[in-house]
Write a structure and sequence with these properties.
It is built from 7 helices and 4 strands. It has 185 residues and is α+β, with helices and mostly antiparallel strands. It has one domain: NADH Oxidase (3-Layer(aba) Sandwich). Helix 2 packs antiparallel against helix 5. The longest helix is centred in the middle third of the chain and has 18 residues. The relative contact order is 0.22. The structure holds flavin mononucleotide. Flavin mononucleotide binds next to strand 3. Keywords: Oxidoreductase. Belongs to the nitroreductase family.
C-alpha cells in the first residue's frame, strides 16, 4: 500500500524520452490498468486510441499545434513539438451521450499516467483533444477509424522511457489545498 502512495506522489510529467519505444508488454499493462478507472454508473464511456506509427504521430502533432492560441504559438521555438518526440501517443475519447464522459475520460488519463510511472514509463497529458475532435477534420478521422461521431476528445498522453537526464520539477503543494471543515464549523 505504501508503495502505491509513493508511486502516486512521485509521478511527474515527463517530456523527454529515450529513443526506445514502449514495449508491448509495458503498454498492455498500462492500458489494462487504465480500463479499471471508475466511470459514472460504471458505463465505461471512454475509448483509448493507441498510435505508435511515427508518421501519424507527427501529423497529429502538427494538427495539435494548430490549436495553440496565437499569442502562445509566437513564443514557441520554430520546431516546437507538442508531443515532445514521443513514439507512443494515446488519445482518450469519451462518449458525449454519457453525462460523466469528461470526468470518466480524465480518470482514465490519470490511471494511464500513474500506471505508467509505477512501471518506469514516463508520461504527460497533452491538451486540445477536445478542439481536435470537435472539428470537421476530427469527425472525418473518427469515421475512418470506425468510431461514432458522438465521441469527444478528452486528452492525449505521450508515453516513453524517461531520458537519463530527465529531472522532475517538484512543486510544493499549496498550504490551503485541503480544508478540514470540522475545524471551521
Ligand atoms: C488537463 C491537463 C492538460 C495538460 N496539458 C498539457 C499540455 O498541453 N502540454 C504539456 O506539456 N503539459 C500539459 N499538462 C501537464 C501539466 O503541465 C503538468 O501536469 C503540471 O505542470 C504539473 O506537473 P506534474 O504533472 O509533473 O505534477 C496538462 C495537464 C493536465 C492535467
Amino acid at each position: 500500500m505504501e508503495s502505491t502512495l509513493n508511486d502516486l506522489k512521485t509521478r511527474h510529467s515527463v517530456r523527454k524520452f529515450k529513443d526506445e519505444v514502449v514495449s508491448k508488454d509495458d503498454l498492455e499493462k498500462i492500458l489494462e490498468t487504465a480500463t479499471y478507472a471508475p466511470t459514472g454508473l460504471g458505463l465505461q464511456s471512454p475509448k483509448i486510441l493507441v498510435i505508435q506509427r511515427e508518421d501519424i504521430i507527427e501529423r497529429i502533432a502538427k494538427w495539435n499545434l494548430s490549436y495553440f492560441p496565437e499569442d502562445i504559438k509566437k513564443e514557441l521555438e520554430e520546431d516546437y513539438d507538442p508531443f515532445f518526440k514521443t513514439s507512443t501517443l494515446i488519445i482518450v475519447l469519451a462518449n458525449s451521450e454519457i453525462p460523466t464522459c469528461v470526468e470518466d475520460g480524465s480518470l482514465v488519463i490519470g490511471n494511464i499516467l500513474n500506471a505508467a510511472h509505477a512501471i518506469g514509463v514516463g508520461g504527460c497529458w497533452i491538451h486540445r483533444a477536445r478542439e481536435e475532435f470537435d472539428s470537421l477534420q476530427g469527425k472525418e478521422l473518427l469515421k475512418v477509424w470506425g468510431i461514432p461521431e458522438k465521441y469527444i476528445g478528452i486528452g492525449h498522453v505521450i508515453l516513453g522511457y524517461p531520458a537519463d537526464d530527465f529531472e522532475p520539477k517538484i512543486t510544493p503543494r499549496k498550504d490551503d489545498y485541503i480544508v478540514y471543515l470540522d475545524d471551521i464549523l
